[in-house]
Amino acid sequence: MSEAVKKAWSDQDTRAVSEIVQQAASSALQGEIPAAMTADQADRLREALASELAGEVALDVRRAARAFFEEERRREKAAAKGRAKAGRDADMVERLSLHVRLQHMVLFSSCILLILTGLPIKFHEAAVSVFLIDIMGGPDVTRVLHRIGAVALTFIGLYHLFYCLAFEEGRKTFGQLIPKPQDAKDALHQILYFLGIKKDRPLFGRFSYVEKFDYWAVYWGMVVMITSGYILWFKDVTINQFGKFVFDIGREAHSDEALLATLAIVIWHFYNVHFNPHKFPGSLTWLNGKITLREFKEEHPLEYEEWKASQDKGSAP
Amino acid sequence: MTGPSMLRLRRILWVGLVAAAFATAAYAQEDVRCLSCHGKPGFRKTLPSGQVLELFVDPNLLRLSVHKDKHCVDCHADVSEVPHPVTPQPVNCRRCHYNGNTSGAPQLAKYLEFERSVHGKALAAGNPKAPTCQDCHGSHFILPGSDPRSRVFRANIPQVCGTCHLKIFAEYEASIHGKALAKGNPDAPVCTSCHGEHNIEKPEETTSTVNPRHVANTCAKCHDKVVIMEKYGVNAEQVATYEESFHGIANEFGVLKAANCASCHTAHDILPPSDPRSSVNPANIPKTCGKCHPGANANFANGRIHIDAKDKSAGIVYWVALGFKILTLSTLAGLFIHIGLDLYRKIRNHQKAGGAKPGAPSSEIQP
Lengths: 317, 367
Description:
The structure holds two protein chains of two kinds. Chain A is mostly helical.
């Protein structure tokens, strides 16, 4: 009976449902009606029984329907997830090589260490500075940590120069990072686009003016920080050789450039790769070197075209 | 009321009166009896060691001192008969000078401070050279510190301390502080200005005012006061510039081997840099810096020591600092403008695309 009811219910055939229920009620009462009952009384009893049964059936059907739809939704979700994962993987393009990623990792690790052990010295009056120095083990420990960071930073700076000279990839990348007049035009174009004067975005190649600025800002920072840093590290030698004022210049430059570099990283670099609404809470490009096709097309359209052409050529027989 | 009871009362009254009269007379006579020996000039005793102990006391001096109403036995309380058979104990000032006393002695906690001081500790340890109250304040001719004749009057303090600390007194006398004091300068620091008075502690003690942690603060009591320093043409910024230097910051973080004021300027024989004997005279800089920076040469004097990068007196360092200031501000301004414009465009595009205004309630959440 239940199958017939379910079918009728899903067909929304209320008449069929009530007929089935009436039948069920009649058959359930067959031979059960007490003899003393008049026909009128029997009819009323039948009706009462039918409505009771109809309620039971409705509840049963509703429960079954809910289970069915829940199962359906679960299946759809899983399918969507699978599609999304497959789509993402197919959608990702590696833009930065492992060689470059490793250099970036050493660079930011040493910078974080240097900032954590250095800025508390500059802002020595702040309570948080005292706290930071204390949890790191006091000034005698942070001094050593700072110098470890300094050696790592110096190493990666020199290694990067070596990379730019000795590796094919390095030479190519370096060439792409050299500022060109087009970058100034792009910058102006971008500002006009921001202001709504131009309707379209500038078309960037492998490196936009923003990335070139980031790259060359690091050069300036490295030169100032490393030079002044070694002046301070080997203070007795520098003072004996050049005079106390050289040490003082080194100290001022080290302190001021430290703040400039930290602010530039925290405000500019973090905005571009973390807090930008399109990137939040951060892209994983630093780890896997990959970028989505959508971002690729949007942010480096010229490079994307090149890449697509080479892909097509590669896949053609 | 007559009879035996009245008689008894009278007797008691009489005895009391007579006793009181005798006691007063005896009391007044006590000083006279003491002075029958101690009032004779030249009354002295030669100890077995050959040391001559002056035992003459000028009663007029006591009458001029803060203790003018006191009698000999008020302080020399262990003398009960004349002549006294044993040498009396040293006077214990604490008989009166304790907190809560009712004899009118000043209510001060100096005694407690003294006990915690290097002198008090030495005394408690039984050091025979340790000073007691009398060594600084005098014995019979004690005057308030405000009286120029007092041993503890400001200008007299170096001599008093110098009775034991002779070598340091000689150094101090030759220093700029000592010379200023000799000229009657009321600003010139004396021993107690830096070391404290009753609470003098060894420099090794962390709470000492001359502990490496606190030297800068102690010097700053005068040296960062423009009102005082401008009188002598001394820069009142020297403390602040020290605190901003690597030496000052290291000291602040507890690296006590880092130089403090006294490391370079010395403690007692401080002289202005213009004096060729000064530790901070350019000619002596290599030697002074060389105490910590082995092999320091004349180039250590090539540049200012106390530098305030915000002041033109810093020379090239001022220009470097200014350059970086301009560079930092202009760079950050540019970056902020770029980020602001970028966000502006993103919001506009979002709105144009029909998206809800950021922050506006979404229609989906409406009830």
